[in-house]
Amino acid sequence: MTEQRWPGNEGTPSGRRRRVWRWLVVLAYTLAVAGLAAVFWHGVRGKSWDDSLSFALTVTVSAVGGQWMAAYVRRKAGRGDG
After folding, report:
1. Maximum CA pair distance of the chain?
2. pLDDT tens-digit profile, the chain (82 residues)
3. How far is Cα of residue 13 from the mean position of the Cα atoms in its chain?
4. Residues 6 or more apart from 34 whose CB is under 8 A from it?
5. Helix (H, G, I), strand (E, B), or coil: what is residue 26?
C-alpha cells in the first residue's frame, strides 16, 4: 500500500522512517553520554577502564532512564493535572 500524495505533504517522511530516525538519535545520545562519562572517569579521575565503563553504564542508565520516565509521566498527565 502506498501513501497518498496530497499537495503540501510531499516532503513528510513516513511514520516508520521517523521512528527509525528517532531511535538513531537515542542511540547517538546514549553513546555520547556513555563515551564522555567513561573518558572523564578514566582521564580526569585516573581510574581503570573497568571502573570507567561501570561508571559510564551507571550514568547512561540514569540519564536515558530519567528521560524516558519523564516522557512517560508527561504522556500520562492530562491537561488539567498540576
Report:
1. 59
2. 555 655 555 555 688 888 899 889 988 988 898 899 899 989 998 989 999 989 999 988 888 889 889 989 988 887 766 6
3. 20
4. 56, 57, 59, 60
5. helix
